[in-house]
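User: Predict the structure for this protein chain, please.
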Amino acid sequence: MRTLEASSSCIVWNFIFIIWMVIIISSLVGSSTSSVCEFEGMFNFGDSNSDTGGFYSAFPPQVSPYGKTYFKKPVGRASDGRLIVDFLAQALGLPFLSPYLQSIGSDYRHGANFANSASTVIPPTASLFVSGLSPFYLGIQLRQMEQFKARVGDLFNQQKIRFGANLPSPDIFGKSIYTIYIGQNDFTSKLAYGGINALRGYIPQIISQIDATIKELYLQGGRTFLVFNLGPIGCYPGYMVEIYHESSDVDEFGCVVSHNNVVYEYNKLLQETLTQTRGSLKGASLIYVDTHSTLLKLFQYPTTYGFKYSTKACCGHGGGDHNFNPKILCGNLAASACHDPQNYVSWDGIHLTEAANKIVTRTILNGSIFHPPFPLHIHCDLEPIDD
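Assistant: Here is the predicted structure, written as structure tokens:
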């Protein structure tokens, strides 16, 4: 009888042990296969600061030395390597965003990039070949997004989206981050041809259109928005050469004071507008991303961040303080690129180097430039971006 009781007890304990091991193994397997991030994708809208190849999918291909640092060839990015949007995708555990206009080799399972170099918020009044501005302004990018979303829904309903297809599930639109990084071309084109007073009268229109776009994306299902402000264009080598200013209008850091002041006015109104809109978007996170504060420090104190040159372009022509000639731009056969872009803040006089983009991204990831606070590390198990 005791032998039978002991045998039964042993069976019970063995059964408990097996169940316990199954629970542990299941939890381990579950933790290794489940998503480590609340965000399953990204959708980006913008200009050359975040274009991953859209412009050069529609127009003649980009030429060397663009892309030389990371991709080892031109890939449609206005830098020697990765952009902020690339580093952000990397940190979220997502692949680089494919341009919406890229018909071959694109993968949209985790979002799409609608940004286009030379794009504006307000529709351009002349063609690209006259104005230098892209026809794919923000309103067009929004229509492309709506078309993309509708087409994904149609294909899903027709059961034409299968495992392995390069399209997302329709529920991704409410589980993604929407990034908006645009306005620089509106700003500089108006400043160059109309002056500061004309630009000031134009600023509310730019911001109003960005605000309207956010509201429309919210109606389309978006719930998390990161809206980037403008950098200190008074410190960008290209604009310092191209846009007229008095010699007395330059500060101790070599930046144009009046141009930076009007950027400050723009950013202030943008933040105020987003603050007002935030209250009307129920259940959404609308974040003002102050990249300006980080970039200004890079231009003013480059050596603090490991750079040697701030207001001098790595890739350009002419040497001197800025190494920028608007008639011989980076990519021109007469232009040349430095061998050490990691020592420069500016790549081609208008855009940042990969090294500068990485530093800005770090301030995004640690949340120090978010208003209001939005701790990404709580929403995602962030991946390193140092490789």
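The chain is about 40% helix and 10% strand.
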